[in-house]
């Protein structure tokens, strides 16, 4: 799906994407050499099933395709989250990327004013149906952000500071503090791993 979207958008391949292509082709050659055409057919069928017309694959469309102008990410609040480990809580995941999947519903529960007014999906079947039948949706139906906009957001949109924390409810302040602590611990763990591995 990602390859198809990149080709449809006529994106220039990066150096790492070229390395990926070379590695993938080399692996395919090895699989063909040892498994024959059956091995390649197995891989093709696996990709079609993984990205095909089944509800779980709809999350690729549900997450970032623009169904409403001005909103670039969408969550899914349906029963599929039980089977796909809360992957539908996509806005929550973007806001708090270090929160484990088990806690994503808790974010929505304690901060409804941030999530209840956003458009969301309740059916992955409906997402697939809309994507196939709507003339307004295509592989290019995504928001593209400029590098300057990305840098502005990284600089100006941050976790609340201590003064701002006093202005929000104690439950939310506690939650933000716990999420910040989890993020700090993850960063510390990453630094320790780099030191131990010598990276």
List the helices and strands and how they pair.
Layout lengths: L1 H7 L6 H21 L1 H14 L8 H6 L10 E2 L3 H4 L6 H6 L8 H7 L1 H4 L4 E2 L2 H10 L13 H10 L5 H5 L3 H28 L2
Parallel strand pairs: 1-2
Helix pairs in contact: 2-3
A few lines on this structure:
Helix content is 61%, strand content 2%. The chain is an all-alpha fold and 199 residues long.
Describe this entry's structure for a reader:
With 199 residues, this protein is mostly helical. It is built from twelve helices and two strands, in the order H-H-H-H-E-H-H-H-H-E-H-H-H-H. Strands 1-2 form a two-stranded parallel ribbon. Helix 2 (15-35) packs across helix 3. The longest helix is centred in the C-terminal third of the chain and has 28 residues, at 170-197. The protein is globular, with a radius of gyration of 21 Å. The mean pLDDT is 80.
Shape: globular
How would you characterize the largest beta sheet? 2 strands, parallel
The secondary-structure element order is HHHHEHHHHEHHHH
Oligomer: single chain
List keywords for this structure.
199 residues; mainly alpha; two-stranded parallel ribbon; 2 strands
